[in-house]
Amino acid sequence: MAAERDSQAAASRSAAASATAPAPIDRAKVEVRRSARRSRTVSAYREGDRTIVLIPARMSHSEEQRWVAQMLDKLAAQESRRMLGDDALEAKARELSRAYLGGRAVPGNVRWVTNQNTRWGSCTPSERTIRLSHRLQGMPEYVIDYVLLHELAHLLVPDHGPRFWALLDGYPRTERARGYLEGVASAARLPHVPGQGSDCGAD
Predict the structure, then answer these.
(1) How many domains is the chain partitioned into structurally?
(2) CA–CA distance, 12 with 18 (Å, rounded to integer)
(3) Are 102 and 178 members of one domain?
(4) Does 55 share its domain with 117?
(5) 20 to 30 Å CA-CA from 95: which of 20, 41, 61, 156?
(6) 142-196: pLDDT as tens digits
(7) What is the pLDDT of residue 35?
């Protein structure tokens, strides 16, 4: 009986881990780009649902395979560390509010949702709730931080007017994050460009 309970507990732990683990990188969607300007460095990043690996042009095929495998493992580890639960996401939002909005934007609830496929985030100022699309999971940390700040700013200013954008002036990666999201939206042919919607949210 004890062995059976241990087996069930292990299965439950495994299921819980699987539920929170990031989706594995699809190696069929890996694009290797060679550059003559690169002498030794190798880098990788996500571009929509693809993974881009940048390598020196002179690299041999065997070296390419070895480095691609290493960079995919590194990306997967980074994305795993970036995965935030709802509680951690709310703590991150409060931290960003203190750092960039003087602590004035105080969310009541912040959580991931899976039903936002055309918007990156949304908020309901009257309820002080913020929701982030699960599609952001695995994107660079500065992008997630930007979307959180975008929604936090909506707790103070509901529209996308000059007062709203002035609130984001203190975040140094606003334009970079917007460019990243616009690129992802364009690649996925989404109907909305981030930050251009008429309703409240980074759509």
Answers:
(1) 2
(2) 10
(3) yes
(4) no
(5) 20
(6) 999 999 999 999 999 999 999 999 999 999 999 999 998 888 877 765 544 444 4
(7) 87
129 and 57 within one domain: no
What is d(CA 11, CA 5) in angstroms, rounded to the nearest whole number?
10
Give the residue-averaged pLDDT of 5-32: 50
Residue 5 maps to a domain: no
Question: Is 96 inside a domain boundary?
Answer: yes
CA distance 169 to 173: 9
pTM value > 0.85: no
157 within a domain of the structure (yes/no) = yes
Check whether residue 94 and residue 42 sit in a common domain: no
Q: What percent of the chain has pLDDT over 90?
A: 37
Domain that holds residue 74: 21-82
176 and 95 belong to one structural domain? yes
